[in-house]
Structures are given as structure tokens and as C-alpha cells.
Input
Amino acid sequence: MSITYRTDLTQVNWRELKRALTRDWFDNGRTPDQLQRSFENSFVACVAYHDQQIVGTARALSDGVCNAYIVDVWTLSSFRLRGIGRAMVETVLDAVRGQHVYLFTDDGVEFYRKLGFSIRPTGLELVVGDWLTG
Ligand SMILES: CC(C)(COP(=O)(O)OP(=O)(O)OC[C@H]1O[C@@H](n2cnc3c(N)ncnc32)[C@H](O)[C@@H]1OP(=O)(O)O)[C@@H](O)C(=O)NCCC(=O)NCCS
Output
């Protein structure tokens, strides 16, 4: 199976991405416009395609110096366990070499361990105001 990985977001159909995330139960409520802004405002993003179909995403926020944070790591269910998640995260990590990379995950611990991440004991979080509206 031929998968293409792109860090250039100009060809992304954001409505299609929203539909794919919704169908795959990985939609967190962003509109297509909010998806576009969150990806375009990232330090680096990687989108995986099978032909023209989006089958995965990963992105990182970073200060460009020492700290980065990985989010939106997703492989379409029917394409999982074929190395796509690894390839996307490694593409993102390549853009933040030398930096300390953080992430939160509920179900992806073993996946991230395989990519070299280790568990840190405490994570804290806060949604400021109302989710996506402020
Ligand atoms: C986690 C996720 C991104 C993995 O994507 P994927 O394309 O299936 O991952 P890969 O095929 O590249 O797997 C890389 C390695 O991790 C392992 N792995 C992947 N998912 C795993 C799981 N759920 N449990 C244990 N190991 C897993 C693979 O076996 C592979 O191991 P290998 O290198 O020894 O062969 C995908 O399952 C997903 O989108 N899940 C829902 C969203 C999610 O949880 N995202 C991460 C949290 S932010």
C-alpha cells in the first residue's frame, strides 16, 4: 500500500478531514476552520494520504528552541498497525530535534513507548473557559 506523507498543508481538504475524524470517532469538536487554524498555527504537522484520502495526522507545537508538545496523532482505524503513526510522529520529531517533547495520551502508551517516549509521573491539565470558545 502506498502512503504519502506531507508537511505542506496547502492541499488539505479540512471538511474531508473533519468528516474522517467524525466517522472514526476521533472528532474533538473543532469546525473545519478551527481544524485548519490549529494545524496551520502548529510548528510542524504531518498528514498521511492513501491516494487522495487522508488516513492520518500528527502535529507539534513548539517554541522552536527547547520545548515541544505533540497533539492530534491519529491513524484512520482501517489503516492502523501498518507503520503510519510511527512515520508521522517521526516526521514531526525530526522538526524538533534537540527539544524536550511532551504529550498526553489515554490509550497510546505502548505506541509511544515504541517510539522512544517514557512515562513521566504527573500530568496536569486545565481547559481555560469553555472548550473551543474561550
Ligand atoms: C495510536 C495510533 C496513532 C497508532 O497508529 P498506527 O498507525 O496504528 O501505529 P503504527 O502502525 O505506526 O505502530 C507503531 C508501533 O506501535 C505499535 N502499536 C500501535 N498501536 C498500538 C497499540 N494500541 N498497542 C500497542 N502497540 C501499538 C505497533 O505495533 C508498532 O510496533 P512495532 O514498531 O514494534 O511494529 C492509532 O492507534 C490511533 O490513531 N489511535 C486513536 C487515536 C490515539 O489514541 N492517538 C494517540 C493518542 S494522542
